[in-house]
Amino acid sequence: MAVLNVIDRSGARHVLDTVEGWRVMELVRDQRLGLEGVCGGACACASCHVIVADEWASRLPPPHDEELMKLDELPVLETHSRLACQIIWRDDLDGLTVTLAEET
User: Fold this and answer.
1) What is the mean pLDDT of each run of 10 residues along the chain (104 residues)?
2) Which of 11, 20, 45, 97 could form a disulfide with 39 if both were Cys (CB 3.0 to 4.6 A apart)?
3) Strand order from edge to edge, sheet including 13-17
């Protein structure tokens, strides 16, 4: 089974089982690691802000305009900031590492 690596806000690493077709937001939120996903994946709240590890950033599809607009509303962005609700899990992402962004 493919896994998703999540670094929480305290720096602890979690290895999560995955389900093809689920949003990364759902995979993380369901483990109660501190990622809210308030809008349920509608790209309307940015409460699922994550930072994708450098080595994975180019392997993900680029963000759509809607995601970029929502990210622009955040007070702090990193080079590889993404909304986890906009990353759909595929098993070829096995080993993807994301860090939960600081709460704003």
Assistant:
1) 96 97 96 91 94 97 96 95 97 97 84
2) 45
3) 13-17, 3-7, 97-100, 49-52, 81-83
Contact criterion met (CB below 8 Å) for 37 and 50: no
For 8, the token pair is: 């929480």
For 100, what's the count of Cα atoms within 13 Å in the CB-facing half-sphere? 25
Residue from 54, 53, 51, 49 nearest 39 by CA? 49
Q: How long is the chain? A: 104
**In 3D, which of 62, 28, 66 has the Cα closest to residue 44?**
66
Q: What pLDDT score does 75 carry?
A: 94
Please give the Cα distance from 101 to 82 (Å, whole number): 10
